Amino acid sequence: MLIDKVSDKLVFAAGLLGVVFAFVAIRFAWQLAGKASRALRARRKAGGQGVTGGAAEEAMAQESTTMRTRRRGVVPAVSDGADAGEPVLNHPVFGEMDAAALLQKIIDDNAPPPLHDGPLPEAIEAARLRPIVFRQFTPLGPGQDGLSFYGGQPIGPADFQWPRSHGLQGLPLTFIMQWDCAQLAELDATGLLPKDGALYCFIDLEWGKDDKQARLEAFLHHPGPTDDWAEIPLPADAPAIFGEEGPHSAAGCTDKVDNPADHVPRVMPRFPFQPVAFEHPRPESAPEEGDRLFWDEGPTGEAMLAIAKQGRPEEPLRELPTHASVFARPFPAYPHDFAAVRHMAAELIKALEWTGAQSAKRRFPDMSDAEREAMLATWLDEAKQLYLFGCQRPMRTPLDQAIADDIWAWLDSRQAALSLNFDRTVTAAVDLSLGVSSAALDRIPREWIDKAMHGHAIASEYLASEYFDNAKHGDWAEYDRLKAAGEVPQVRKVHAPTPAHMFGPPSYVPGYVEELMDEHLLLLELPSHGAPGLEIGEGVLQYLIAPDDLAARRFDRVESVISSY
């Protein structure tokens, strides 16, 4: 019988989806149980429970072969998954395949690779248990901060060749960071990292290009001595960072002006760091030989916090700032440089673009709709002109005090659009000034520089209300009442998100890093915001290298995994 009504079709589709999802759940549970059962049987056989060693090895080999087959996407025959009356799918890619076989293919193609047989190679085991993280500090400027830093322009020898997307051809890749190899050598648990000179990382930050032959990253090593090294000039054809997404992703930028890509910087924010190693905690339950270890934010929190507090005076625990500050000029020089002007204007443009009719009516109740609309349109046009003014000079250029005063007077009369979170706006502007090595840093009070650098800490601690506990607080209404009355205790909490790191375990994210972990060590992991200015949404960049390739300096053999949570 044909289904003619749209409503009937929707009901039929919903019912069919329900059946498919239920079948997937049952099949997946059955598959997991089968794998666990086969693994348990193989281990029991290997333990000598009535089966000879040769038979046990054969059983394990058979299971391993099955799993390797699944990794390659080869579908084993399915003889028990479909009844005679089960529908057969006709798909342009999969062809004629019954539903059970298709679901089995999906499960098999996404199964993790088999665990490593026996202990991991010595270098991989040593590297994964001793990660190296990068503790940032306040920049002084190129040539004054050492050879380990994010962004800016690399420091290297006179014959340094900037890597490009096609060898020596194509567009230059974006410089991400470099390491002083002498610092790394003191922390290297493998003994395989270079011991002198500098190691460099370049990445193509323009996502989604169709060029399959283009190089997406480059790791380079230049040996020492480093005494006569200097800052490497930026190639004239270096593209704007993040490509077409630059106006959205780069700090101090907006896409609400003509030709917005013309105003996006071509280098990432520059912040120096000190590499620091620590022992990654083992899981509470000791892993079996060959088990894979992933980064665990919980157990690593205290170790990360200890690193973040090195060299800092002990401070009392405080609650997190709310950033809901009163609108006021933060210090006499603000806006102190062209970076601050750009950032201020871009934030004002964003605020005005997001101001809806009802919000504008609440802020300006004494004006008519037409008056409010005309005023906001004028403010938006002025903000765009101010942004373009901020783009006329390099961001690190100091702003004349008289001009800064005039701009502040203009902004003060339009504070209704920026009054919310203005403290955060100023902190971000100071951070941008630090990242471009502004010549106006001496005009910024230390407290504001400290606020900006706090955002670069790899871990922090703070006081917050204890979490809701049903047994202790009853219900949410009672919890809210106790909290409003100040009767919910304040407890210490540690914030330590997964940092950028060399060696150590990778993060567990969808992707195929599991296929590389047993034979490669983690050369670098870069989560979004793990490096200053690195805006990749929920993405994670992971770069792995085989121990032999690292020892031979074959950085051209680095394997990259680009994943997302």
Per-chain topology:
Layout: H1 6-46, H2 53-71, E1 88-91, E2 95-98, H3 99-109, H4 122-128, E3 132-136, E4 149-150, E5 155-156, E6 164-166, E7 169-172, E8 174-180, H5 181-185, E9 198-203, E10 217-222, E11 230-231, H6 246-249, E12 271-277, H7 297-308, H8 338-354, H9 357-363, H10 369-390, H11 401-412, H12 422-435, H13 446-454, E13 460-465, H14 470-473, H15 476-484, E14 490-495, E15 501-502, E16 521-527, E17 539-545, H16 547-551, E18 559-564
Antiparallel strand pairs: 1-2, 3-12, 3-15, 4-8, 4-12, 5-11, 6-7, 8-9, 9-10, 13-14, 16-17, 17-18
Helix pairs in contact: 1-2, 8-10, 8-12, 12-13
Description:
- 35% of the residues lie in helices and 15% in strands.
- It has 16 helices and 18 strands.
- The chain has helices at residues 6-46, 53-71, 99-109, 122-128, 181-185, 246-249, 297-308, 338-354, 357-363, 369-390, 401-412, 422-435, 446-454, 470-473, 476-484, 547-551; strands at 88-91, 95-98, 132-136, 149-150, 155-156, 164-166, 169-172, 174-180, 198-203, 217-222, 230-231, 271-277, 460-465, 490-495, 501-502, 521-527, 539-545, 559-564.
- Helix 8 runs antiparallel to helix 10, helix 8 packs antiparallel against helix 12 (422-435) and helix 12 (422-435) crosses helix 13.
- It is globular and about 75 Å long.
